[in-house]
Amino acid sequence: MQTPLCSKCAWSESLCSTCSAKRASGAMSNLDIEVSRILYKINEQHNITMAQFSHAADLGEVVLVFTPGEAGLLIGRGGKVVSALSSALGKRVRIVTESGDARKSLEDLITPAKVLGINEVWSDGKEKMRVRLAKEDEPYLKVKPAHLEELVSRWMGKPIEVVFE
Ligand SMILES: [Zn+2]
Prior knowledge:
Layout: H1 7-10, H2 17-25, H3 30-45, E1 55-58, E2 62-67, H4 71-75, H5 80-89, E3 92-97, H6 102-110, E4 115-123, E5 126-133, H7 145-156, E6 160-164
Parallel strand pairs: 2-3, 5-6
Antiparallel strand pairs: 1-2, 4-5
Helix pairs in contact: 3-5
Bound molecules: zinc ion.
């Protein structure tokens, strides 16, 4: 299984020097640690050894769990894995895939709001992705635009700008 936390730390109360450094630098959050530990426990029951988890984001009522791999592995047959994760966290969980179609991932993330378009733009000599959303969908967004920009730029590897029109 691929998680930000190493397998040794998943089963101990303390963190090894590598994992402590990751946490100190902000590369790994406490939520990432919690989700990793839960996934290792789930792996004992439902085999999810092939699953990949990169990071999680707490949006209040829902926790987003990002995977660079296949979302299906973290969802599980009949949603077994995602519901075990959800009951351990005490919150709804949504699995978001970071690979493949960026637009599809973004749509999964912001549903029921719709993506009008994604354009590459240049500003101040830097490439940016401009994500266009409908003004009337703004109230349905569970993520604040600034937070959405941060989340999406993390997996797209580029700065993102969210605009409503
Ligand atoms: Zn470790």
